């Protein structure tokens, strides 16, 4: 068993460095091992070290991407001010499994009061992405994150529940890129009042342990300089699509939209419009979404050199009273007119 684990780590290191020469990343940090949390299941010990291999953002999917989840290294820091002295080119003290929060058994840390934290990994960019920009994406880091790429302060993000992206192309070195994240998560400590839900540094009764640090997938993906950075899409029970596309640079680019039956080539609608304002059009005879028949459609959006996929269902929801109680209603076609 020990042999297999060691072999897997070596194989992983070889895979990472296959196209580039490997810099010594870490000397001898404490090896990762899953800890036994207070509430475990049989699956806790079956996660392995390649967690969440799926594309993490179904709402805005790019065909090319590379997950950075897996074994990173971690050290606790002493204060918020530590962020001004990042551990460039040095070894952090222990391995951590990203993206599991530092309090979890799966992270391998199972810490408490993990308020100030350093994370570190290295990544290479596939050579086929050469002509594109490289976006570094974080699904979520609780609560503040400062991100350094090859010594450059690439971005800062505040908000433990929200995703963020940064174009890191200008900081890349063409080889093993050093990625360092400083995370600060006060939870309800000291004078901090931040959105925490029921997390507390002193768990009791119905309040529970915090979830600190990187807790959602980290990944890179190629995109043109002017790319689709966000979108809002809505399909109603009358078959009307209402879509707003946000672009990273241009406020006037045109977009082409195609809608197909899920997993098929059968086209049900095609439409064009511009980024930044709602684009509306109708899909004839759309199959409505319902709990018994949860029909979804594949949506492709092309904007200049960029293209992404997303999805929609068609349904209108309302709120009304039934037997004197407020309920959520699925509005039928005839009722929606
Ligand atoms: C880290 O090491 C690289 C390669 O030796 C070097 O180019 C870089 O300047 C170092 N960074 C810092 C912040 O010392
Ligand atoms: C990093 O850059 C952000 C701006 O993106 C800034 O707010 C933050 O103070 C910087 N942090 C450090 C440690 O330089
Ligand atoms: C489309 O959605 C936007 C919000 O994104 C809303 O302001 C607008 O009224 C909607 N248009 C239609 C026709 O429903
Ligand atoms: C979408 O972009 C990818 C590269 O990201 C490209 O290979 C593919 O041909 C594009 N598809 C369309 C329909 O433009």
UniProtKB/TrEMBL annotation:
InterPro entries the record matches: Beta-gal/glucu_dom_sf (IPR036156), Galactose-bd-like_sf (IPR008979), GH2_Domain-Containing (IPR051913), Glyco_hydro_2_N (IPR006104), Ig-like_fold (IPR013783), Ig-like_GH2 (IPR006102)
Signal peptide: 1-15
GO molecular function: hydrolase activity, hydrolyzing O-glycosyl compounds
Segments forming domain Glycoside hydrolase family 2 immunoglobulin-like beta-sandwich: 227-315
Residues of the Glycosyl hydrolases family 2 sugar binding domain: 116-189
Transmembrane spans: none
Family: Belongs to the glycosyl hydrolase 2 family.
Record keywords: Glycosidase, Hydrolase, Signal
Upper lineage: Eukaryota, Fungi, Dikarya, Ascomycota, Pezizomycotina
Entry's Gene Ontology BP terms: carbohydrate metabolic process
Name of protein: Beta-galactosidase
């Amino acid at each position: 068993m020990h042999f297999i684990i060691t072999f897997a780590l070596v194989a992983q290191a070889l895979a990472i460095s296959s196209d580039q020469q490997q810099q010594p990343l870490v000397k001898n940090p404490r090896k990762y091992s899953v800890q036994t949390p207070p509430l475990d299941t049989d699956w806790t010990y079956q996660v392995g070290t390649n967690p969440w291999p799926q594309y993490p953002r179904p709402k805005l999917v790019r065909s090319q991407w590379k997950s950075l989840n897996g074994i990173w290294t971690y050290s606790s820091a002493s204060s918020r001010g530590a962020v001004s002295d990042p551990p460039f080119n040095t070894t952090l003290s222990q391995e951590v499994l990203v993206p599991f929060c530092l309090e979890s058994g799966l992270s391998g840390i199972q810490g408490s009061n993990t308020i100030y934290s350093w994370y570190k990994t290295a990544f290479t960019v596939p050579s086929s992405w050469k002509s594109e920009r490289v976006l570094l994406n974080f699904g979520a880091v609780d609560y503040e994150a400062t991100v350094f790429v090859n010594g450059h302060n690439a971005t800062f993000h505040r908000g433990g529940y929200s995703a963020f992206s940064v174009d890191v192309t200008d900081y890349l070195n063409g080889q093993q890129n050093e990625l360092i994240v400083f995370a600060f998560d006060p939870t309800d400590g000291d004078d901090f009042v931040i959105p925490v839900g029921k997390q507390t540094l002193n768990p009791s009764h119905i309040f529970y342990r915090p979830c600190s640090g990187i807790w959602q997938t980290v990944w890179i993906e190629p995109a043109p300089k002017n790319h689709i950075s966000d979108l809002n899409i809505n399909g109603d029970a009358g078959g009307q699509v209402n879509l707003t596309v946000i672009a990273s640079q241009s406020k006037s680019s045109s977009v082409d939209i195609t809608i197909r039956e899920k997993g098929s080539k059968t086209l049900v609608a095609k439409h064009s419009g511009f980024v930044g304002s709602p684009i509306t059009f109708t899909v004839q005879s759309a199959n409505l979404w319902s709990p018994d028949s949860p029909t979804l459609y594949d949506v492709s959006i092309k904007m200049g050199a960029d293209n992404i996929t997303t999805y929609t269902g068609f349904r209108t929801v309302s709120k009304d009273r039934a037997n004197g109680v407020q309920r959520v209603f699925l509005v039928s076609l005839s009722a929606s007119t």
